[in-house]
Each structure stands twice: as C-alpha cells, then as structure tokens.
C-alpha cells in the first residue's frame, strides 16, 4: 500500500475520517518537536507546544487552503503557540532547567583517551546550544528555521510573518551574534 500524501489525508480528515489526522501527526511530530526544542530551549516546553499546535491544527484544519505545504502551515501555528507560550512563561533558573536545556548530565572529566573525541563532540554541541540559546527570540527563530529546518527565505518570511528582507537581515545578524558568542565561550 502506498503512503498517502498530506493533501489526501487532509481531505479524508475533513470528510469525517479523523484517524487520517493521526497519520499527519505521526509524519510531522518528530520534526516539529525537534525544531521547537531548539526554539524554546526546553524539551518539556517543546512537547507542550507541539501538542498544542497539533490540537489547534486539527481545530483549524478547514482553514488550510493548501497554498503552502501542510508542514509550513502547521509550523506557523506552532511558532505562534511558542511565541504565546514564551510571553506567558516566567523565567526560571534552576539546576533542573539548566540540565534539561543542556540535554545531558554532567560528565566525569576523567575520561580515557578513547572517549575523549566523543566528549569533545558533546562539549562542542553544548557550546553551540548555549550560544544559540543566548540569541534573542527573533534571531534564534530565523536561524533555527534556516540552518536546522532548511527552510527557504520565503518560507521563513511566511512562518514569522515579516518581509524577506527582514528575514535575511535577522539571519545575518543571528549568525554574527552566534559567532561572537561562540568565540566568547571558547575563550572561557
């Protein structure tokens, strides 16, 4: 049996076969979640926002016009939910939050030489995550969409609802700030 495309699943769902929406969720949940983790800097927040985005998408499915890919439409809903979530959220500073943001437990520095390259790779990834987390929301979002999601400038402009020139400017500035932040972190 061939896999149904998104448009077919949407038509089936709108026709009353709501189980077709489950297939859309299964198809897109990992990609959406992973991107939201990078945007929100929290696995737990990303799970909550992804779930909210799928619920909203289901409720608004009739408004999907098909002008863009379903994932682009879903992602726009998720980003709006993420922005709304961030406005409501109070800043937290705890060891648990820091551990979750890092995505790893503290490591024993007394590693043998065979695992030192793996440790360096983990440390490098952590430095990049830390640097990305230090970017302002508007810069972090466009950088994640471009570099991690691989979206085109036009798609990013649609998702964040701003002109392409603004997207290009924000990405340029985000890369510059990321470079500066990484240089500062490497000097520590």
Write the layout of secondary structure elements.
Elements (H helix, E strand, L loop, with lengths): L5 H9 L4 H22 L2 H17 L10 H19 L6 H8 L13 H19 L2 H12 L4 H8 L3 H24 L1
Helix pairs in contact: 1-2, 2-3, 2-4, 3-4, 4-8, 6-9, 7-9, 8-9
Domain module count = 2
Beta-strand percentage? under 5%
Return Rg in Å: 19 Å
- How many E strands? 0
Counting DSSP H or I runs of 4 or more residues, the number of helices is 9
Describe it.
This protein is mainly alpha-helical. The protein has two domains: 1-96, Rna Polymerase Sigma Factor, Chain: A (Orthogonal Bundle), CATH 1.10.1740.10; 116-188, Orthogonal Bundle (Arc Repressor Mutant, subunit A). Helices cover 73% and strands 0% of the residues. The chain is built from nine helices and no strands. The chain has helices at residues 6-14, 19-40, 43-59, 70-88, 95-102, 116-134, 137-148, 153-160, 164-187. Helix 2 packs across helix 4 (70-88). The longest helix is centred in the C-terminal third of the chain and has 24 residues, at 164-187. Residues 104-111 have low confidence and may be disordered.
Features:
Rna Polymerase Sigma Factor, Chain: A; elongated; 188 residues; 2 domains; 9 helices
Q: What's a concise summary of this model?
A:
This protein has 188 residues and is mainly α. The chain is built from nine helices and no strands.
């Amino acid at each position: 049996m061939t896999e149904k495309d998104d448009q077919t699943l949407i038509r089936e769902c709108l026709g009353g076969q709501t189980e077709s929406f489950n297939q859309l969720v299964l198809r897109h949940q990992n990609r959406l979640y992973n991107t939201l983790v990078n945007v929100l800097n929290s696995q737990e927040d990303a799970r909550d926002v992804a779930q909210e985005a799928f619920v909203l998408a289901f409720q608004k499915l009739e408004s999907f016009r098909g002008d863009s890919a379903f994932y682009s439409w879903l992602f726009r809903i998720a980003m709006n939910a993420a922005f709304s979530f961030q406005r409501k959220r109070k800043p937290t500073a705890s060891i648990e939050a820091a551990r979750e943001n890092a995505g790893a437990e503290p490591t024993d520095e007394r590693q043998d030489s065979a695992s030192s390259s793996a440790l360096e790779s983990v440390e490098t990834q952590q430095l990049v995550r830390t640097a990305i987390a230090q970017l302002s929301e508007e810069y972090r979002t466009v950088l994640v969409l471009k570099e991690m999601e691989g979206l085109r400038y036009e798609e990013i402009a649609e998702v964040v609802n701003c002109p392409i020139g603004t997207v290009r400017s924000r990405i340029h500035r985000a890369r510059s700030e990321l470079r500066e932040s990484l240089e500062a972190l490497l000097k520590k």
